[in-house]
TrEMBL record:
Annotated cofactor note: Binds 1 FAD per subunit.
Name of the protein described by the UniProt record: Deoxyribodipyrimidine photo-lyase
Keywords: Chromophore, FAD, Flavoprotein, Ribonucleoprotein, Ribosomal protein
Catalytic activity, EC: 4.1.99.3
Cofactors, names only: (6R)-5,10-methylene-5,6,7,8-tetrahydrofolate; FAD
Protein source organism: Candidatus Micropelagius thuwalensis
GO biological process, one term: photoreactive repair
Photolyase/cryptochrome alpha/beta domain: residues covered: 3-129
Site (Electron transfer via tryptophanyl radical): 304, 357, 380
Pfam families named in the record: DNA_photolyase (PF00875), FAD_binding_7 (PF03441)
GO MF, one annotated term: deoxyribodipyrimidine photo-lyase activity
PANTHER family: CRYPTOCHROME, CRYPTOCHROME CIRCADIAN CLOCK 5 ISOFORM X1
Catalytic activity: cyclobutadipyrimidine (in DNA) = 2 pyrimidine residues (in DNA)
């Protein structure tokens, strides 16, 4: 009997542009596709678990069409792979690379263990345009600021073209005794994850990309910051779980750019957001400790406040600032939040409430469909001012002005805070002012909370704290 090859799916849940899977299909060996629930990996929350479950169901169905079954396991990956190597007489393992500190160390141990036994382990890039170790600054080190990083990417490199989907796989007829059923994800009663907006899986990713090109790309640069407009790609959950690759997105955007009349500005702006994702992985690979530590050491002395009550009100969307609360309620209910609103809610927690960015990062990780091991960390540190290419700490979003500017009709805010639906626009983002206004308003006192902190006071307090760590 010929040897077998085991393909280990991780966050690359697709068949197209999957170099590791294509390699496996070309060996002529019987292939065993697997997914391992690793208890030592960072646990994901309900929304992300739901998405992963739906994606794995779709992936299993697509694999079956071309000749192989997707098997599930739970436990320490090295131990599971050792059992499978013996049972299936496998002489090769393949997988797509991950870049966070835990995954890098785990994979290195696995490669070394099997190399000592004469079993080959091959890993491939399926998640990034450019490998983190290939992009270097003039001193030969990694980049610490986004703009020069992205200029370097664009100046000297062209992303590889997407590779084709395997037409057929030689599955293995034997069934090992180590498999488990795919675990079901229990959903909260108030969760609204199954909507027309989301179709987890590879085909859903392609549909979403097409929708964005048709409806959002032309207005992306102008309206990407407006949460009530369909101007963003909403591809982040698909990228998070690898149902689509950045190479596929890049290729598609370059194609439409050359064949349709999209402006250079809007295309460049969108591709720079793909670049920010690249930069986040660049950082997490080179500085894995940033997952829990400030990149800027001065922030180690920042006087964060322990305020569980305020943290809980922020999580619930009951801070008294409507745009902040709309974002937090959207997250709680749908597992998603518009990017501009993510920045505003994060800034409020850090700079209005003086709560450590790590508390916010953890909550977003627990609630987001697209909870990404690189983007989530990099985004929170950016807002805090503690990270690479950080927004200055003294840039403090005014949640009232942000609401008036980016939700000018109030449709986004009123969607998630229905108790303010009949409030006049002039009071929507400062509803406490309506209580003393002589104009008759449909606003019942007690339905919506007063602000938990006054903006100017909070701003001055944050700036004073920032001055303390600069002295």
């Amino acid at each position: 009997m010929s040897k077998s090859i085991i393909y280990w799916f991780r966050q690359d849940l697709r068949l197209a542009d999957n170099p590791a899977l294509l390699h496996a299909s070309q060996t002529g060996k019987r292939i065993i596709p697997i997914y391992i629930f690793d208890p030592n990996d960072r646990p994901i929350g309900m929304a992300a678990s739901w998405w992963r479950e739906q994606s794995l169901i779709n992936l299993g169905a697509e694999l079956k069409k071309i000749g192989a079954n997707l098997n599930f396991y739970e436990g320490r990956p090295l131990e599971i792979l050792q059992k499978l190597a013996s049972f299936y007489d496998a002489d090769e393992f393949v997988w797509s690379r991950q870049y966070d500190g835990y995954s890098v160390a785990r994979d290195k141990e696995i490669k070394q263990t099997f190399s000592d036994k004469g079993i080959q382990c091959a890993s491939f890039n399926a998640s990034l345009l450019f490998e983190p170790w290939l992009i270097k600054n003039k001193s030969g080190s990694h980049f610490k600021v986004f703009s020069p990083f992205w200029r370097q990417c664009m100046a000297e490199n062209q992303p590889d073209s997407p590779c084709p989907r395997p037409a057929e796989l030689r599955g293995h007829p034997d069934i090992d005794p180590f498999q488990i059923p795919l675990p079901a994800t229990p959903l909260d009663e108030d969760a609204d994850l199954v909507t027309e907006e989301w179709t987890p899986g590879e085909s859903g990713a392609y549909q979403q990309l097409e929708k964005f090109v048709e409806e959002g790309l032309a207005i992306y640069a102008e309206f990407r910051d407006f949460p009530d407009r369909l101007a963003t790609s909403r591809l982040s959950p698909y990228l998070r779980w690898g149902e689509i690759s950045p190479r596929q997105i890049w290729s598609k955007i370059q194609f439409v750019k050359s064949h349709e009349s999209f402006s250079e500005k809007t295309v460049t702006k969108f591709l720079a957001e793909i670049g920010w994702r690249e930069f986040s992985y660049h950082l997490i690979f080179h500085v894995p400790e940033m997952a829990t530590q400030n990149l800027q050491p001065s922030f180690n002395d920042f006087p964060w406040e322990e305020n569980e009550k305020a943290l809980q009100l922020w999580k619930e969307g009951n801070t008294g600032y409507p745009l902040v609360d709309a974002g937090m309620r959207e997250l709680r209910r749908t597992g998603y939040m518009h990017n501009r609103v993510r920045m505003i809610t994060a800034s409020f927690l850090i700079k209005h409430l003086m709560i450590d960015w790590r508390a916010g990062e953890k909550y977003f990780w627990d609630r987001l469909l697209d909870a990404c091991p690189a983007n989530n960390i990099a985004g929170w540190q950016w807002v805090a001012g503690s990270g690479a290419d950080a927004a200055p700490f003294f840039r403090i979003f005014n949640p009232i002005i942000q609401g008036e500017k980016f939700d000018p009709n109030g449709s986004y805010t009123k969607r998630f805070i229905p108790e303010l639906a009949h409030l006049e626009q002039k009071h929507l983002f400062s509803p406490w002012k309506s209580k003393s206004d002589r104009v008759e308003l449909d606003f019942q006192e007690g339905q919506y909370p007063d602000p938990i902190v006054e903006h100017e006071y909070a701003r001055n307090r944050a700036l004073e704290a920032f001055q303390q760590i600069r002295r």
